[in-house]
Amino acid sequence: MTLRPSDTSTPVRGADEGDAPDPDDRAATDAPTADAERPGRSDERADADGSPPSPTDADEGSGGLGATPAEGWSRPIEPDRFLLAVAVDGEVLFAGPSVPDVVGVEREALVGSDLLDRVHPSDREPVADALSAVATSRTVTHRIRRASGGYAWVESVVDEELAPDFGGRIVTVRRVDADRTFPERYRAFLEYGSDLVTVVDGEGLVVYESPSVEEVLGYEQGSTVGRSPLGYVHPDDRDRVTERFYRALTEPDAAPTLEYRYRAADGDWVWLESRTRSLPADSPVGELLINSRDVSERKERERRLTDRNERLDRFASIVSHDLRNPLSVIRGSIEMARLRGETEPLERGERAVDRIDRLVSELLTLARQGTGMDEPAEFDLASVARDAWETAAEGDDAELVVARDARMYGDRGRMRQALENLFRNATEHGMPDAAEASGDDSDGDDLTVLVTATDEGFLVADDGTGIDPDHRESVFDSGFTTRADGTGYGLDIVREVVESHGWRVELRAPADDPIGLPDGRRLRPPDGACFEVCAPDPAGADPDEPWIDA
Predict the structure, then answer these.
(1) 0.90 exceeded by the pTM?
(2) Which of 62, 106, 160, 511 has CA atoms 20 to 30 A from the CA of 547?
(3) What are the tens digits of pLDDT across the range 228-267?
């Protein structure tokens, strides 16, 4: 589980490692104590007309120190702190130049706003008390909202007296994130470590996240302080992670390790492996420590290995079942030919050999799918369709018609294989039964196969006998065929090729909605088989991902 570290602050010099300086000492150091150092000398700072100086004038009169709102302050403000002039009701009257460096908010946006609106809701009461006229303490540690939406831990020291120039109190605000978490000698390891270190409080909210969150997840360090990390977990993993997360919070001995998807700053999902451990009850840091690492590459390897194993299992099943039948035919045909001295059984064996050769070819094609594109390139739909037609259907009683061309980016060799299988499926299954039975080669019975670009990609359709409605849901299933000599892997290969490009293939029916063509016309699916490949255009595809430009 990740959290968001707040920004690293500059440690106070002279303090013991890991110990926050004494508030009284810090108040004496950070806030002006002598009358000459307070902005109450309006007689010396007033303009010629007697009006008090503006905040801009105060900066210029500070000798270039920038963060001091009054003349006479000689100590420069360190980059981990800034000054404010705040009215008793919380209105910010002046903001020092270091404000953007610490909380990411521009000075102009802070002036005129209510300081308490930027304080964490749980910390507003002590901050309001410190600003009041009857404060019990002028030093308060609290969380303040950064421009990114997360919270940073700060310590605010409120000057006892009002500053007449501003009508409010001078407040010195200093970052104390590191002081509240880890000693200086340990913070170096966190800053340079590649793993994410997250600390959450008893309410399950982030109080610290190490700097590596920027490299691993892309978030600004500290941007999610004060938020629950569960909101970034993938919805499918959230219930499981939530149960283990709160179990770790309530059971000190629990140390669960789990893997889950976590949303990165760019919106993508990153696989994290997190191990949680409860911190000691008296720990000033928080309740739970979480160590997380990015395991996305490992999960991808596991996915590829699972896919490969599934393919091998399917391959083994095919080899043990589908190849055994034609081999039995060959063996029986040879024995019969020997006994009878006839050649007809050998012809049956030859057909079985052809079936085995086709099975081996298609099985090898299936085994190679899903491993990514071999040679991605740009090519024309018309050219690859005509090349596939020459291999798969030329010489049959069928005609190829390419109506509209499209520019494609993908693996041309695999796309040719897919088109070959679609054409072979059309000529083997789409010929009218009457023409096959009579052997009539007249033009009237010729099959026409159409290839054309569509608004979504391209389609391959024929005017043959079509596909039985009872078989429509099974045409892409591995091993499904309606022919005695079919392999059942032709359309399975088509689906594998298309999906390996990140596209999808659909079987359209005459009852489906018309298909949009690039010229604006609408094509109704024919009575025969109609397969449409849908893919993004170049503008809608990720860089270097396959596309079809119709």
Answers:
(1) no
(2) 511
(3) 899 999 999 999 999 988 888 888 777 788 899 999 999 9
